[in-house]
Write a structure and sequence with these properties.
Helix content is 17%, strand content 30%. The protein is of the alpha/beta class. The chain is built from 3 helices and 11 strands; from the N terminus they run βαβαβαββββββββ. It has a 6-stranded mixed sheet, covered by helices on one side. Strands 4-5-6-8-7 form a 5-stranded mixed sheet, with no helix packed on it. It starts with a strand and ends with a strand.
């Protein structure tokens, strides 16, 4: 099974469409959205082609393929227009004998790792900075942001297949990679 990870769409039709082109080209089975889907947030500039209504329509067409968690910019109002659940602070997936703990990153993150077993994986967004590390025998991964990357990083997404998590830019070029076995 191949999983496709995006975070921090922040209402950008332009960057969501670019990411979904990569999703199709990657041949992934599911899209994991790590929060901040529709609203750009008070601290962020308006992203390119900011249109939360259109982002809603696009995501709803793919609702059967989406696993999502709530970001700090997501609210009950957003949930009312989306056809898939987004209000959980975290979700988990069992993958190749380990737990993938999915969250946005404003609660659980590298500095506040939840109770996980050795070799489990914490995957979060929020910081808009792609990372792939091991902390206290836990894999800690952030695929970055498709819309508003920070610290001069490219617009990025993640792909997990056969215990290899790859972070790529929106042109599909490898940025970082980590084996999670």
């Amino acid at each position: 099974m191949k999983l496709f990870f995006i975070s921090d769409i922040h209402g950008s039709v332009y960057y969501l469409n670019k990411a979904l082109e990569r999703f199709e080209e990657e041949g992934a089975h599911h899209i994991v959205v790590l929060g901040d889907l529709l609203y750009h947030g008070a601290r962020n500039p308006l992203p390119k082609e900011y249109n939360p209504k259109e982002v809603t329509k696009i995501l709803n067409r793919l609702s059967h393929k989406i696993i999502a968690v709530r970001g700090n910019c997501d609210s009950e109002v957003d949930q009312m227009v989306l056809d898939f659940p987004i209000m959980a602070d975290y979700s988990t997936i069992l993958y190749e004998g380990k737990r993938l703990f999915l969250t946005h990153g404003h609660i659980y993150n590298e500095g506040n790792i939840p109770k996980l077993s050795n070799k489990d994986v914490l995957i979060y967004g929020h910081t808009h900075i792609p990372t792939a590390d091991i902390v206290d025998n836990i894999f800690v991964i952030n695929p970055g942001s498709i819309t508003l990357p920070k610290e001069n990083n490219p617009h990025t997404y993640g792909v997990l297949r056969e215990n290899i998590f790859q972070i790529k830019d929106l042109d599909g070029k490898m940025f970082k990679e980590i084996r999670i076995d």
